[in-house]
Design goal:
CATH architecture of the largest domain: Clam
Shape: elongated
Strand content: 25-35%
CATH superfamily of the largest domain: Lipoprotein localisation LolA/LolB/LppX
Strand order of the largest sheet: 7-8-9-10-11-1-2-3-4-5-6-12
Distance between the termini: 44 Å
Oligomer: single chain
Structural class: alpha+beta
Order of helices and strands: HHEEEEEEHHHEEEEHEEHEEEHEHEHEEH
Amino acid sequence: MTKHMISFALRSTFVALFLAAVIPLSAATNAPAGIDAKSQEILTKLLNTFKMATSAEAGIRMSMEISLPGLPPQNMSGDYSFAMQRPNKIAMVLTNGMMGATVVSDGTNMLTHLPMLRKYTLTPAGKDLLSVAPGGDAESMAGTMGSLGLLGAIFNTNGYQGFIDGIPTVVYKGVEKVGGKSSHHLVLSTDAGELDMYVDAGPKPILQKWSMDMAKLLDNESLANSPEALEAMKKSKMLMSMTFTNWNLSPTLATNRFEIKIPDVAAKVASFSEAANGLHAEELDDDEKITDLTNKEAPAFKLEQIGGGEVQLSQFKDKSALILTFWNTKASPAGKALPLLADLAKDFEAKGVLLYVINEAEDKDEINAFLAKKKLKLNTLMDTNNLVGQMYGVRGVPHTILVDKKGIIRAVHVGYSPEMNAVIAPDIDKMLKE
């Protein structure tokens, strides 16, 4: 593994962390325990105050202090304007810097723009503030209590109980200064680690700041093929903080505050999973660059099918259009994509569209055990040596390719999001009309 690849893998990890900063707080069904009386008192006042707000606005400074082995310390920051209006309008707009994402929901659609990658997603809006789930792998990052996730939880309509579900302990640490103001310091435990929350100690219980070591959130999937980078991450620290200023609760907000504006210098993607998995093509070495196969003839292949027999691409020509998805059992996003793609294929089966999922270099027992656990019955092919994946330019999974009846690739979708079918389906319709 080259020094370049270690650095690239780490940059990819930063992208995943920035995405995590806009992922909603996950909630459990169990009642909380281990929350001291002072913490409960402060949180109850804070959440009752925010629960009553019909709208809100504030300024936000996001910062990250990064410490990596062998590299000088780095500090990154970004400034945001935040606004919300119930039930589901949100505008968290990056106004200065490149750190993080702009997320805007107009109540019908939601735009998520990551300037660092010059990419954006456009997905259906959530039904409420807790349903904010920008393009990415929300489930695997759940519990990170990122910026919008934390804010959505604070503005939840069930107040203290709606916020605290799934948090086993909260410890009161006393009063400290934040931005010159006295603030109560609370430490909340989550599945991912400890979240430090600071609440104004004055008469108005307002959220002042939160911080967390984001390096502890990684599931290391994006670094699975890079032992050097993985080892480096174990010794790393990425302290992300968000400081809030100028809170205004229940203001009258202009309608255009939540207007979706498509960025001029960004490309639309199905999700940002490709970014989190290191698929930022312009930063790859020449021999690793991703080839754009759209509107080109699909590379021929012949692969063994789980359950018996072989399948070759040529047998479908002039008969069926195909959804080809590359995956493996160890990639959590790929596993989550399969049930969605199975449902999508059913919707188009009557129109002559077939789904084949192509597993990368795993044995039959491993594949069958995974599919049985997920209760999935799929046309599964085995790319034993990853040769077919290489021909199709696969650098991360899930990697989904649409092939028309003439054997021409019509669209490529990399990554997973809960709304991926809403993005892929129009491309299938377009393919069938051509």
